[in-house]
Amino acid sequence: MPEKRVAKKAAAAKPKNDMQKDVAKLRSLAHDLSNSLEAIIQASYLLGQARLEGESKRWAELLQSSSEEAAKINREIRKRLRAMSGE
Hints:
rod-shaped
């Protein structure tokens, strides 16, 4: 009978370990995404400093708002992943 309990605990631990590995991988990907987004946000900022007009200005504004929204979403993903990993 005790052997069955040990087997059940081992089986229950495996999915938790798999989930922890998945969370760790997702955190790593979110970190890499943050780095990429930072470059886009900086480029967007610099573009916003230029004296653009018309269609170019509209595209620069779209780039800036979209990159800011992507960064916000990425922060929320990272926050939830931290909570899942117990930090």
